[in-house]
Amino acid sequence: MTTIAVLGAGKIGESLLSGLLKAGRAPSDLLFTERFPTRAEELTKTYGITHVEVADAVQRADVIVVAVKPQDIEPLLDEMAPNLPSGRLVVSLCAGLPTKLFERRLTEGTAVVRVMPNTPMLVGEAMSAVSGGAHASDADLALVEDLLGSVGKVARVPESQQDAVTALSGSGPAYFFYLVEAMIDAGILLGIPRATAADLIVQSAVGAAAMLREGGGHPVMLREAVTSPAGTTIAGIRELEKHGVRAALIDAIEAARDRSVELGKAHETDEPA
Ligand SMILES: NC(=O)C1=CN([C@@H]2O[C@H](COP(=O)(O)OP(=O)(O)OC[C@H]3O[C@@H](n4cnc5c(N)ncnc54)[C@H](OP(=O)(O)O)[C@@H]3O)[C@@H](O)[C@H]2O)C=CC1
Ligand SMILES: O=C(O)[C@@H]1CCC=N1
């Protein structure tokens, strides 16, 4: 059985561990590292998984998933580098960090796969995009796709698109949560109790998502079907257009892409990201 170690069990690391357990993986196949003992204890208690030190994790696991913030990568690479045996598969979930960074800092020839997942992994509904580095084989990519396929959907993309993917689907859930939050506020303004407004909006979001996925209709057609002549929806759409919401979303996603590029550049030395 493949042993998987997650280095940095924060929000996304925990989502992955929890998702893998829900998908049927045994706790004995999972290891994790964390800096704070209380956080480590909490995770062991919740999931029955084993906390180890970084050196131990990279020696014991077949697949090493890096899930620390990009800003924390350098000290982690310093810990990993002297302990990583050859033949291990390193999977980075870090926004912005190119596979070249890991290849440069770790054992010569190490296979690295860059992944951009998202937090719906927690409920088996992740969208993950994977790209192989210079030494990643098709078998390595297939293994990572299988792993992430157990907690959601997976797409293979060229690494040159990973910063854009990070902005779209990595950050994407936050933008949907933001819209839901704003729509619940609108309900409160209109005198609907918060709990009722939340039920109305969350179920509308779930229903709209199911139509987009299962109905296969184009979003424009789905929206038009809700937009009656001289009706309520067009009155609302006019306000969205007046306030430039479409342009704001496009700008927001472009800014997120630019930030991902910047995070990668912070770790460049001799080679471009
Ligand atoms: N959150 C998200 O939606 C997504 C995040 N990502 C990527 O995942 C990565 C993690 O993000 P996120 O989970 O949100 O961040 P978190 O801060 O929640 O998690 C990172 C965890 O790593 C721990 N950590 C840092 N350095 C080390 C180390 N040397 N050894 C062991 N543990 C360490 C941190 O501990 P401490 O608390 O002490 O700092 C923290 O618990 C980032 O690179 C991000 O770009 C990718 C897709 C989506
Ligand atoms: O905000 C971030 O940097 C991370 C990457 C994608 C989602 N969250």
Automatic annotation (TrEMBL):
Record InterPro entries: 6-PGluconate_DH-like_C_sf, NAD(P)-bd_dom_sf, P5C_Rdtase_cat_N, P5CR-like_CS, P5CR_dimer, Pyrroline-COOH_reductase
* Predominant subcellular localization, coarse grouping: cytoplasm
| Pathway(s) where this gene product acts | Amino-acid biosynthesis; L-proline biosynthesis; L-proline from L-glutamate 5-semialdehyde: step 1/1
Pfam families membership:
F420_oxidored (PF03807), P5CR_dimer (PF14748)
Indicate yes or no for the key word Amino-acid biosynthesis.
yes
Q: Which biological process, per GO, is one annotated for this protein? A: L-proline biosynthetic process
Q: Name one GO molecular function term.
A: pyrroline-5-carboxylate reductase activity
Chain ranges of the Pyrroline-5-carboxylate reductase catalytic N-terminal domain: 3-96
- What residue stretches are annotated with the Pyrroline-5-carboxylate reductase dimerisation domain? 159-263
> What's in the keyword line of the UniProt record?
Amino-acid biosynthesis, Cytoplasm, NADP, Oxidoreductase, Proline biosynthesis
List the PROSITE patterns. Answer: P5CR (PS00521)
Q: Does the keyword Oxidoreductase apply?
A: yes
Q: Where in the cell is it found?
A: Cytoplasm
Q: Where does NADP(+) bind?
A: A67, V68, K69, P70
Its biological purpose is as follows: Catalyzes the reduction of 1-pyrroline-5-carboxylate (PCA) to L-proline.
Q: What is this protein called?
A: Pyrroline-5-carboxylate reductase
Gene from which the chain derives? proC
